[in-house]
Amino acid sequence: MQHKILIIEDEPDIAGMLEYLLRDEGYEVTVAYSGEEGLQLNKEQEFHLIVLDLFLPGIDGLTVCNRIKQSSTIPIIILSARDKDSDVISGLEIGAEDYITKPFSHREFILRVGKILSRMKWINRQSEIKIGDLLINLEKDEVYMGGERINLTPNEYSLLSCLISRAGWVISWQALLKDVWGYDEWEGGREMVKVNIQRLRKKIEPDPHRPEYILNEWGKGYRLRKIEE
Amino acid sequence: MQHKILIIEDEPDIAGMLEYLLRDEGYEVTVAYSGEEGLQLNKEQEFHLIVLDLFLPGIDGLTVCNRIKQSSTIPIIILSARDKDSDVISGLEIGAEDYITKPFSHREFILRVGKILSRMKWINRQSEIKIGDLLINLEKDEVYMGGERINLTPNEYSLLSCLISRAGWVISWQALLKDVWGYDEWEGGREMVKVNIQRLRKKIEPDPHRPEYILNEWGKGYRLRKIEE
DNA sequence: CAATTTGGTAACAATAAAGTAACAAAAAAG
DNA sequence: CTTTTTTGTTACTTTATTGTTACCAAATTG
Hints:
Two copies of one chain form a homodimer. Chain A has helices at about 10-25, 35-45, 60-70, 85-95, 105-125, 155-165, 175-180, 190-205; strands at about 5-10, 30, 50-55, 75-80, 100, 130, 135, 140-145, 150, 170, 215, 220-225. Chain A is an alpha/beta fold. The first copy, chain A, has two domains: about 5-125, 3-Layer(aba) Sandwich (Rossmann fold); about 125-225, Winged helix-like DNA-binding domain superfamily/Winged helix DNA-binding domain (Arc Repressor Mutant, subunit A, Orthogonal Bundle). In chain A, the strands form three sheets. A five-stranded parallel β-sheet of chain A has the order 2-1-3-4-5, sandwiched between helices. Chain A has a four-stranded antiparallel β-sheet with strand order 6-7-8-9, with no helix packed on it. In chain A, strands 10-12-11 form a three-stranded antiparallel β-sheet. In chain A, strand 6 and strand 7 form a beta hairpin. In chain A, helix 6 crosses helix 8 (about 190-205) and helix 7 (about 175-180) packs across helix 8. The interface between A and B is medium-sized, with 22 and 25 residues. The first copy, chain A, binds a DNA duplex through helix 6 and helix 8.
């Protein structure tokens, strides 16, 4: 299967190089030469991965990253020329999947891209997901907690699936809203996500008041505990 | 009789191999190289079994699986690339449906296909099906409840047969509608299924208000209690 | 530390799905 | 052609889920 990758990079040389590298690996590549264009393209199409340069004309790269994360669950690799720790931290704090400093070796870049995409593939191919005492059968849409079958409503299951697809990563309530309910914006959508997270926790958490599986990161979103491999 | 098998697999190498293996066993094989194509073919033709790769371009394999189940009762074998580690599956019911991990031995694959088809055959060959106090004579189309002969109308019997063919699995009302009445969509079809489930329950359930045999799963469909073998 | 934002909680209203009964239309039987 | 059975349709009740609201607690901001 061919993965679709979006490159957001203003420097034509680098953009062209990245495009060539990725095409060579068999990926389907689209290039945006500005943050605005990137955001637009990401809205119009469904990509599997975004490669984003931090330094862009117009909107800043971090802002672009935040906006994308705000409304979707797509993984992002951030490119930066600065080697500074501050950048690394702020980049990863947003929830970027990976961070690469320029200049980087072509091989390393390809490896990182491959690693992220193969993990997505891995999750897709699992028939069962195990996290602690939680067991999810993705084929039968059944959830077990410590061997006991738990009955989730369609919406609750959909919410859990969304969290599973990016387990270990923070997902904003906007992204959850879009994935589960299909709305980009909706008055009361925030409450909807909140209440349904509560409902899910009530069913799958041993102690819903001290969640072990569905964790919250203040101001960012929710994160499902990492999947055991 | 020759069984018809649909393979949904995008990688030509694997698809070709599966096709060869199954043809060699005397099955009639059709290959779809994408989820969309697979769904289309399944609509147009009647297959006995579907072999589905979870990882597909375009629509995801799980989505394809759910869509197919939404409107039919056909058994599906899922191909996945799960790692070897999990022994978790043993606790769960696989039943008529199965998954197989890549890479797999050709012999194993053929065996699993054979097992599912022979189970269908088994049900077909079986002159009697027993579930609790319920006894169904498939040759004479007679149903007994605790020794008492029960008279089912043709539609009721057809509905029961459909449930039997996938006993233990949830079947959506859309799938029942298609199997029993032959309609893909029909204004009022939902009510039709509902009322006929009620009629069946009235006849075969000891207490129709607390069904033991024909169970409902909210938002998903109906499930017949597992057959005793 | 007050004001504001974000998250957790419970309770209630609205909605959608499933169960029920009754009746008319259609088909089969006599 | 009448009677009986089956089938399709409808209206209504019950139940589960979903959406909304209000209120409280914790974290952040200034």
